[in-house]
Amino acid sequence: MPIRVAVVDDHPAVRDAVARAVEAEPDMALVGVAGSAAEAFDVLREGHPDVAVVDISLGDAHGLDLVQNLRAEADTLAVVVFSMYDEAVYAERALRAGALGYVRKSEPTSTVTEAIRAAADGEIYLARRAASRLLARVAFGAGGPGDRSGDGAPGGDGAAARTGLDELTDREMSVFQLLGQGRPTDDIADHLNLSRKTVETYRRRAKEKLGLGSVTELLQFAIRWTYAQEEDS
Hints:
Layout: E1 3-8, H1 12-23, E2 28-34, H2 37-47, E3 51-54, E4 57-58, E5 61-62, H3 65-73, E6 78-83, H4 87-97, E7 101-104, H5 109-120, E8 125-126, H6 128-140, H7 158-167, H8 170-180, H9 185-192, H10 196-209, H11 215-232
Parallel strand pairs: 1-2, 1-3, 3-6, 6-7, 7-8
Antiparallel strand pairs: 4-5
Helix pairs in contact: 1-5, 4-6, 8-10, 8-11, 9-10
């Protein structure tokens, strides 16, 4: 039987490219596409996919809660996260949330189909760079030997910035990422279904963990980091 695949991404060009790649594989069958979290659950119930390729930054959902919610809806579903964000920050988080694969959007679509096959077999799939970083973290601690991920942080201390981002909780990271997109506090609160005060608390904790002196510095760093992710992808 072919691997039944669903694609969830709110960028039509990306969604269509992944869907075409899936349809071109003789051992895969595309059972649905979705541009939002709400549509994703409809596809899940109607198409019964074996694997879902999911962007974790959608208009009506943000962060790794979506991975957890999809897995809660169908515990046999394998999830491959397909994101523009750096594996160094999100790959390990995605695996903890229940995903079996993490692929950056800068990778060719052939990498996505490789990840789908691995996930369908119950295996974890990471691109070579992400896998190397994860192994280095296990062997040598955060960042690995000589790691300079996160360069461009305040003060030029890339290693320190990476360590700070690693220390953020998933919710703090979601707030940080949305700040980097230029979203105001009230918008972030609505998007994450949180109170304004709770968002401000997460923002303060992120600022402290990153060693930044003010909210303005946090915003500047978040915007630079988000821009760098988009440029890299």
